[in-house]
Structures are given as C-alpha cells and as structure tokens.
Write a structure and sequence with these properties.
The chain is α/β, with parallel strands linked by helices and 275 residues long. The protein has one domain: Rossmann fold (3-Layer(aba) Sandwich), CATH 3.40.50. The chain is 37% helix and 21% strand. The protein has nine helices and nine strands. Strands 5-4-3-6-7-9-8 form a seven-stranded mixed beta sheet, sandwiched between helices. Strands 1-2 form a two-stranded antiparallel ribbon. Helix 5 links the parallel strand 4 and strand 5. Helix 1 crosses helix 8, helix 3 packs across helix 4 and helix 7 runs antiparallel to helix 8. The protein is globular and about 50 Å long. About 12% of the residues have low confidence.
C-alpha cells in the first residue's frame, strides 16, 4: 500500500493518493501544512538557514562531534537497513539529503522510496531543486507538514528517520505520530543531540547558560531564539529510552557517542521497532 496524505487531518475529507499532493504539485502549501502554525522564530530562522543548511550542519557536527554531516547520515541509514521495497519517512527533512541519499545508493541503484516532510517552504524548495537536479524524482518526494501532526494515513511506512530535528519539537508527540504512521514491525531510527547528565546538575545548568550566551553572539536573533529553546528540549539517553517505551516502541537501543568536550551535547543514535 502506498502512503496517502491527509491534507487537513480531522476535517472528514477522504485521504487522497499522495503523488498528487507532493510539494510542487497541484495543491498550494496551505493545503499540505498541518493546522498547527509553527512559531514565527522557527520559520524565520530555518528560512534564513535554508540556502546554507547542509554546510551549516556539516560545520556544527564537525565542531561538536568530530564527524561530517554526510558521514553521519551514512551511518544512520546503515542502521535503518532500508530494503528496496521499503517506504521511508524522513521527518524534518530540511533540504532532503536523506531522501536523496536513499534514492541512489553507492552502486547506482535505488534503496527504497523516501518521503521527506518539513514545515519550512524554503527548505522544501531547496530540497526539491536538488532532487530534480539529481534526476531523483521517481523515488524521492517532499511534503509540507509537521512531525507533530504528520499528514499521512496510519501504518503506511516501513521506516521512519529523523536526523537532528527532535529538539525543535515536542518529542513525546513526535514519537506518537511516527508510531501511528509506521506499519507493524516498522523501524524508527533517530539521530539527535542529547543532553549530558551533567546538564541536569546546578553546575551544568550554569555552563549551559554560558554556552547559550556565547552562541547568541554569533547568530541572528531568530536563530538564537530557536537554539535556546532547542537546548532546553534536549533529553538524556535515559530520558529517550523512557519516552520511546511510553510511546509504544520495543527493541529499543540508544547509543551515546562521546562528544569532543565533556560539556558538549552528546550524539545519540536511537533504534526502536513497532511491536
């Protein structure tokens, strides 16, 4: 069964086949985005960031984790073990690096079919240009919408991934939504910046405040605001295990990578399955 898109969930309208509702297709953005309006600062920051998004991700991952964006995505997708017949959902897709990577594997053959979802039109526009430039439109698709209210029918994806997007969302709500759209036995793979347990101490909260102040000196007002919120929404490995279990996932694995500095966020790679 192919994924279907529900343009406005809860409206009573019948779900329509998703190929007609893809970004750049026949319906306007307002018909695709979920009813929940994203915060103005979030949209402003990511719209501004879109032209340089992948270079920014690469620079920040190298700074904090010592690994580049492309290499990190390769490792994440290897953990997902995507098969040629799998439908993959990439939540907070940005400029669609993951759908593009899945569309063409190293040997030139496709590895599954991927649908990327994001709230930012500028990100989706950039991703769509890259998909067309790579002649990948047959297996890589983009849809406007929120990870906290996914515009898809239940149980239509085999794999869901999200790379460094959950700290901009309500994590428990995101997990409930991804579980809803995954088929029985479906796999969830997340990569996220995790809070070290040190941040939960008095001294750690002070260090975090200093880090945020220093970060704010080098960023735009909107970017600084969303990153302040994001740092406060980061979770420890133990907190993620509990949230995944509470959302109904099993076979939970959370791997924590060492950061370059003791007070830096950790890289968490998480795997779980729908029972």
């Amino acid at each position: 069964m192919e994924p279907t898109v529900e343009p406005i969930r809860g409206s009573g309208q019948a779900a329509q086949r998703w190929p007609f509702l893809l970004w750049g297709g026949g319906l306007p953005w307002t018909a695709l985005v979920s009813p929940m309006t994203p915060d103005d600062a979030l949209l402003a920051a990511f719209s501004e960031l879109a032209p340089d998004y992948e270079r920014t991700m690469n620079r920040e991952l190298e700074q904090y984790l010592g690994v580049g964006y492309q290499a990190f995505v390769e490792g994440l997708l290897a953990r997902a073990a995507v098969g040629p017949d799998d439908w993959v959902l990439d939540v907070a897709t940005g400029t669609a690096l993951i759908p593009r990577r899945l569309a063409v594997s190293r040997d030139g053959h496709g590895s599954g079919r991927a649908v990327g979802v994001d709230i930012t039109p500028a990100m989706l526009s950039g991703g769509n240009r890259a998909i067309r430039a790579g002649n990948l439109s047959a297996t890589a698709f983009l849809v406007g919408g929120s990870g906290m209210e996914l515009p898809f029918a239940p149980q239509v994806f085999d794999v869901a991934v999200c790379a460094f997007g959950t700290h901009h969302m309500d994590a428990p709500r995101l997990l409930r939504e991804t579980r809803r759209v995954l088929r029985p036995g479906g796999r969830l793979v997340l990569a996220e910046a995790g809070a070290p347990s040190y941040w939960r101490t008095v001294a750690g909260r002070l260090v975090l405040k200093v880090m945020l102040s220093a970060f704010g000196l080098t960023q735009s007002r909107s970017r600084n605001q969303i990153e302040e919120d994001a740092f406060r929404q980061m979770h420890t490995a133990a907190e993620w295990r509990a949230m995944l279990s509470n959302a109904g996932f099993g076979a939970i694995q959370v791997r924590e990578s060492r950061a370059r500095r003791a007070w830096y966020p950790r890289a968490l790679t998480m795997y779980a399955e729908v029972a």
